[in-house]
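Private note to self, pasted from the team thread so I don't lose it. Backbone tokens:
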């Protein structure tokens, strides 16, 4: 399978791409800069090589569907990082980077599919921000969206894949939770304080954090590519979400440190504003119902085991 990836240089893309190569697939990356083409030698099959291509695109400009010739599947990850001061301009950039970029790629995939029958699959990132702040409510793929900024963005983000789906491309929208990885994401930002013994619960600590280990998330993308009956929105989270107070105690325990320094709600709101309310204080108790029904088996469903594996 030849897979085209947007956002290939990010935390998730950098993990997915080698996993695809190991599984015997070839990849190409969509990039904004001047593209490069080079060959890499497969360690498992010395003497053979597979092209590692880069294709240029501008997410706000139409993409020539002929660039998708030979592409069996698309993994779409690109989008502006949501960590920052949520000014009106910043929020507009976050929304446009996801909605416009997704629609651009979806329209090109639709045209290519009608012309050549390919690509057959489009796996697009989304987020559990779709559900908003829902307290203790148990959330599945059938739950309605929330009403805050991130929920509206996620709703439009997923809707932007409609042109591809209408053209017959199998579309999967993976609603991704808090990604646990040693070299990036939320965990990397938390580790310095926790390693110094200065960590603790955020706010009252009762909000649910739905998490996913990076290697499970990579496997979920490969699972979505491989299963022809798997389509539509799917929650990419581990099956056992926990409250923030449990998360922080578990992380501190794995690091053999105390977790006695809480981050009060008013401090979160003062330092981080709307972003802090949406990402740190909001509660989303999300279940991976669709993945489990489809037969996906999680490598890491226990938080302590996952953190111990990640942190070594």
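Design output:
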């Amino acid at each position: 399978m030849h897979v085209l990836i947007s956002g290939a240089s990010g935390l998730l893309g950098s993990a997915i791409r080698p996993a695809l190569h190991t599984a015997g697939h070839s990849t190409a990356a969509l990039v904004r800069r001047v593209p490069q083409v080079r060959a890499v030698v497969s360690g498992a099959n010395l003497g053979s090589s597979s092209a590692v291509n880069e294709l240029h695109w501008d997410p706000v400009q139409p993409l020539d569907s002929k660039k998708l010739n030979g592409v069996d599947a698309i993994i779409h990850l690109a989008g502006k990082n949501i960590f920052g001061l949520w000014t009106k301009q910043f929020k507009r950039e976050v929304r446009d980077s996801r909605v416009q970029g997704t629609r651009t790629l979806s329209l090109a995939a639709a045209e290519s599919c009608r012309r050549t029958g390919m690509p057959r699959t489009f796996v697009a990132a989304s987020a559990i921000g779709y559900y908003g702040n829902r307290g203790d409510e148990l959330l599945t793929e059938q739950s309605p969206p929330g009403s805050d900024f991130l929920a509206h963005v996620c709703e439009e983000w997923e809707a932007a894949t409609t042109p591809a789906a209408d053209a017959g491309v199998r579309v999967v929208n993976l609603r991704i939770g808090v990604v646990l990885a040693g070299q990036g994401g939320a965990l990397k930002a938390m580790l310095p304080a926790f390693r110094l013994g200065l960590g603790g619960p955020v706010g009252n600590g009762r909000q649910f954090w739905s998490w996913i280990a990076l290697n499970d998330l990579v496997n979920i993308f490969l699972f979505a590519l491989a299963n022809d009956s798997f389509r539509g929105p799917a929650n990419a989270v581990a099956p056992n979400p926990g409250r923030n107070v449990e998360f922080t105690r578990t992380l501190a325990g794995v690091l053999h440190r105390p977790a006695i320094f809480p981050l009060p709600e008013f401090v979160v709101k003062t330092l981080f504003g709307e972003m802090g309310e949406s990402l740190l204080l909001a509660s989303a108790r999300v279940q991976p119902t669709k993945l489990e029904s489809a037969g996906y088996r999680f490598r890491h469903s226990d938080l302590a085991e996952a953190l111990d594996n990640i942190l070594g």
